[in-house]
Amino acid sequence: MAVQYFKNFPLVNYNDVSMRNIMLKASIDINLFLSNTKLYTYQIKDGEKPTIIADQYYGDVDYAWLVLLSNTIIDPYFEWPLTNQELDAHIIKKYGSLVTAQSTVYEYKNTVNEEERITVDTYTYAYNNNNPVFLPVYAYDKEFELNEQKRNIQLIDRSYARQIANGLETLLGNNDNV
Questions:
Q1: Which residue has the higher pLDDT, 113 or 20?
Q2: Whole-angstrom Cα distance, residue 156 to residue 37?
Q3: In contact, 101 and 95? CB cutoff 8 Å
Q4: pLDDT confidence of 2, banded at 50, 70, 90?
Q5: Confidence label for 178 from pLDDT (cuts 50, 70 and 90)
Q6: What is the pLDDT of residues 86-123, one digit of tens each?
Q7: What is the distance between the alpha carbons of residues 103 and 100, in angstroms, rounded to a whole number?
């Protein structure tokens, strides 16, 4: 059975209640795993959560912490890709409606060098709306693009999972008393 991430955190007493000190932070020195044989690139499918990936790849949902830790994801609510339905709800909350987001220019991108992006104000004042080199990027497309960028993650080769779990136990003091 895989190590449960918070099981290894030390206990602290707070208001006469014994609880895990979740304020500690563990991290993986990713430089140890830079060779292609130790890292596996994975693209998160719509609706997949860390527990699903951990179960499918490592054979145990308890390794969800390793999926997150190996990608330096601290907050899975904001750093994990939203489902298509969640993304639409986020866009509606942020822009008022999908139609508004689809018609609101977020920025402009250079058609020659797509990495070059400029703000709406820069485009309006510097290019006077007559420059075919820059095309609009609408808010909906930008939100979709940002969400899609979160889909590519790295999984540490499953053969190292137990070794990392043991290292975490050692680092945090292996508290089996709860």
A1: 113
A2: 9
A3: yes
A4: very low
A5: very low
A6: 999 999 999 999 999 999 999 988 888 877 888 787 77
A7: 5
**Sheet strand arrangement including 117-119:** 117-119, 105-110, 134-138
Residue 93 and residue 44: Cα distance in Å, rounded? 24
Other C-beta atoms within 10 Å of 6: how many?
14
Q: Spell out the SS3 assignment of the chain.
A: CCCCHHHHCCEEEECCEEEECCCCCCCCCHHHHCCCCCEEEEECCCCCCHHHHHHHHHCCHHHHHHHHHCCCCCCHHHHCCCCHHHHHHHHHHHHCCHHHHHHCEEEEEECCCCCCEEEHHHHHHHHCCCCCCEEEEEHHHHHHHHHHHCCEEEEECHHHHHHHHHHHHHHHCCCCCC
Closest by CA position to 70, among listed 3, 5, 153, 149: 153
Residues in Cβ contact with 31 at an 8 Å cutoff, skipping those fewer than 6 apart:
none
